[in-house]
Amino acid sequence: MSRAFVFPGQGAQTIGMGRALAEAYPAAKAVFDEVDEALGEKLSTLIWEGDIAELTLTQNAQPALMATSIAALRALETEGIGIETADFVAGHSLGEYSALCAAKSLALSDTARLLRIRGQAMQEAVPVGVGAMAALLGLDFEAATEVAAEAAQGEICQAANDNDPAQVVVSGHKAAVERAVEIAKARGARRALMLPVSAPFHCALMQPAAHVMAEALAAVVVDNPVVPVVVNVRAEAVMEADRIRDLLVAQVTGSVRWRESVLWMEAAGVTEYWEIGAGKALSGMIKRIVKGAETRAVGAPEDVLAAKG
Fold first, then answer.
1. Residues of the chain scoring pLDDT < 70
2. Considering 93, 98, 255, 283, which one is annotated as catalytic?
């Protein structure tokens, strides 16, 4: 049996996430305390008692989701299930930072600050209203890529997230993405819809944010991970700190190759996937990618105890 710990990305956030873990496990509470201190504010109060619209702001959602994931991991460690029980780690977009923190490649405080910078840089890279994203359901990655290319017409339109065999997200200039929706519908997509996001993530329009992240990552210590990290832009495991730094910069403008990453882990022998943190979105994707895959969501004290068996 081979196990992967996987970490969710933006969209999984909910008010109250991680609170029960913090109340049940001092080690989980310490994660939120350290993130609060690193950011110089009570992010934990926003997570547990705040307004969902404020929590959903990119610069808040990214460190908040990471904190919740690492708190869940610390709870598992308290029950004797440490990172060394995983053969691989992987995360979806910002979840890759959670995976790197879990694998001891990035320090928790550095991860929180990097994600705050990343969230702000991604939000500021493109003026509001200029960019957009859309989900194309029922088209595979090759078909969605063709749709994006046809829709571009001199603007940016790229396949940004290859989530599962029938869900691809495109990103770019708003008009081009709107054209992609109509083209996808004409080509038989089951659904094609604009997404309620604040910026066009994972496309060439994010280049200003990539420059910011290159500078931010150059200023922190990145260690070799203790567990191989299956990275978004390569869909394969990486163990070298210098490569990880470069690939995190590339990830800002590059596609999230989640479907390929899961297939890579399956080929490497992974039979069970533990989603560490908020929600179950990745578990759903994984089951659509690998028929019969065994998944487990670990986001609450009862999940931790169930995992302990």
1. none
2. 93
